[in-house]
Amino acid sequence: MAPEILYKEESYSIMGACFEVYKDKGNGFLEDVYQECLSIEFEEQSIPFKEKPKLKLEYRNRVLRKSYEPDFFCFDKIIVELKAVKTLADEHRAQIFNYLKATKNRLGLLVNFGSHPKLQYERVLN
Question: Per residue in 105-124, pLDDT tens?
Answer without folding.
Answer: 999 999 999 999 999 999 99
